[in-house]
What does this fold into?
Amino acid sequence: MTTFPRHLSRLAALAALSLMCVAGAAVLPDDRADVFYSSYRGGGMDITGESVLVRKKFSEQFAVQANYFIDKVSGASVDVLSNASVIKDERKQKSLSVDYIHDKTQYNLSYTNSTERDYVSNTTHFSLSQDMFGDLTTVTLGFTDSRDKIGENNGKSYAPIIAWLGHAQSRSYEAGLSQVVTKNLIAGATLEVITDQGLLSNPYRSIRFLDAVPLGYSLGTQVYPNTHTSTAVEARAKYYLPYRAAASVSYRYFSDTWGIRANTIELGYTQPVSNKFIFEGRVRHYSQNHATFYSDLFPFANSQNFEARDQNLAASTNNTIDAKMTWAFAPEGFLIFKRATTTFDVSRIQFKYSDFRNIKAYSIANGFAAGTEPLYSFNAMVYQVYVSLFF
Amino acid sequence: MTMRTSSKLAVAGIIGLILGGCSIQPWVKPYERDRLADPIMSWDRDAISGAYVDHIYESREGSRGATGTAGGGCGCN
It folds into this structure.
């Protein structure tokens, strides 16, 4: 993507030009503090998450947000076949974000560090949003730089032996538009291009190829290209219904240089009841084809330059149904708080793979020759509970 | 018309549109935006939950991006 920075500089120049026609001022959101708990169960994995977020305005122009998130993982997904796979791990993510408003322009700078025993990621993000055309239009331009250090645990979860394998770098360029269409309808679109380079494969996942051994196949190391560029574009709209409710729709198209094409469509509905409850429902459908160098079973060892058997690169679909209730237990506030809410959210996600077989549960031992095992599918349940205090 | 001339014209046209936009009268007046300002019309009311849900999908799908979140981690296991 050698021409992209030139396009970006043109976009930046247009954004700078558009600053010339501003009047009035943008507004920062309310101060808030959140305490969050989540649980994910499915596909052999059990993940709990705990998080705290605090956002505080220090003036009408300047706000700071801090977030701490900890994931505790046990189990391993079905394509982790290595004996040395990590059974228990923790991911700790810390982020600090600063917002500054000048007239109708909002600047955001954030830094995120995510650390696991065998994976470290540092992400820096900058964006600016500009309100224009009588505040009916908001244009956002963003840039994200992420640098990752990738390792592999060759020991046990209680006695890790980490071998650091390499690095990966990712850069993301984002442009967004939000538009007030009518007094009941708001619409938006986002374009994001991401380029990666470095070690892009998952060290815990293996390819398999036909072999004259009792099992019928042997395992081998995945070989990925060391560059990857993807483009995603999303369009969305939200409509305010006549009886104080909202309906939303979004569609995203994704394509990348590994041959994956994906479509995501999501529908949402929001229904408040009095000033105490907000009920929400969401359905999401996702589908993708497989990467060009993906195969569930290669014909022989080293049959291609690039080889992958990562379930994320397989042809798949998934469907989500989600229900959420927000209860304002102190709608008029208490002590120093203007308002306090608690939210309960439950999702069921059904994953189905078209060319990824379940070789953990089925093999020649129970009558399935290599390449005839049942296709893999699983259901995941996701629970979220959080308390939000606005002050 | 050369490519260079047409690009210049295109850039001039975009500049004209933007500067012209300065004088656009908003067709939804500020006093008509009470419904759009209702919290139920927000794209993403709860930042932690939104980022968490995006992380779930990004860790299990081949696609990524255009969802408005920046984060890290591999979700490998």
